[in-house]
Design a protein that fits this description.
This protein is α/β, with parallel strands linked by helices. Helix content is 45%, strand content 15%. It has nine helices and five strands, in the order H-H-E-E-H-H-E-E-H-E-H-H-H-H. The protein has a five-stranded mixed β-sheet with strand order 1-2-5-3-4, sandwiched between helices.
Amino acid sequence: MANSLDRHPDSLVDREDASSVLLPVADGLWLGNATAAADAHAIGRAGITQTLCLAVNLDMPPMTLADGTVLRRAKVGLIDGPGNTAAHLIAAVLSISGMLAQAAPGKSSYPDHRPGGVLVHCRGGRSRSVIALALHLSEVAGEAPFDDVLARLRALRGLSSTQPSTALCNLAEQVRAASVLRPAAALL
């Protein structure tokens, strides 16, 4: 069963995607969409200094915040549906962890940067970013069991049980079954 957004792609999804979605999910960690990732004012106000784009079909331009901080942009291109490998999803989850822990050195060859929050986004913030955040929060951060975290993120984002996509949910189960994220978390 498709959710209501899927049934009307030219109206509801487009209208929602045109609005900035920027939701705090944990200390220093945000869930959002591409519109939010392009909104320097909203990002600056939230204290975000890094973004992780999880959409294979989306490249975000460089951005400098009002205080002169150069926003760090990273990308792990996931497909919203079948076609991803477990390695892609693991890379996305570990990128979240790494970005949260990475220092902001003041080297002369680096653009001006300061520590801050991380925005994880895809185009709409409904599937790829939600599944990667659920895996990070449950398997790496140890916040709660995966199903509980996924339910919390769905409620926060206003999603039905059809989002994230079935293919990404199945891939997340494969990643969880492989038990690779918890040992990797020990390295952070």
